[in-house]
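lol ok so funny story. i was supposed to be doing the assay writeup but got distracted and ended up predicting the structure for this chain instead. priorities right. anyway since i did it might as well share w the group, maybe its usefull for someone
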Amino acid sequence: ERTFQLLTQVAGRSGRGREPGQVVVQAFHRDHYALETAALQDYEAFYEKEIRFRRIMKYPPFVAIANIVVLAGSPESGVQRARTVGEVFRAVGGDRLQVIGPTVAPVAKLKDRYRYQVLLKSDSKRRLSDALNHAVMELTTRGISSARDLVIDMDPVTLM
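and the output, tada:
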């Protein structure tokens, strides 16, 4: 979606003056539907393919997602905290919550804090919210503070 958005925005700005514009894109997957539909400025075709993909892969808007970023001062404590976070969410969520990870976050270190992430998926935003509330209380009893050690992003736009 972001690729389609950026490409249509760039193409829309190209050639606004007297001279016609041209957009050149270099890509590994030239036949990807985001590139093809952006080149054609075909919003409806992009939507149809993207919404079908999201339904099959169980991505929003068909599920609720939360990204939990676990912060730590060292890689060792980060790995241990991230494992604890994953375990707690698995216990709290049961079979109604899919827990993916923990894994190293795409931005692995920021401002001297190591970052790990756990992705949560649920068929219901309410169930996800309830699981988050219960898990945060349980994590607090284990010494992991949501204010200091966790960043909770409901409906994340990116997974950074």
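DSSP finds five helices and four strands in the chain. The first helix runs from residue 2 to 13.
back to the writeup now i swear
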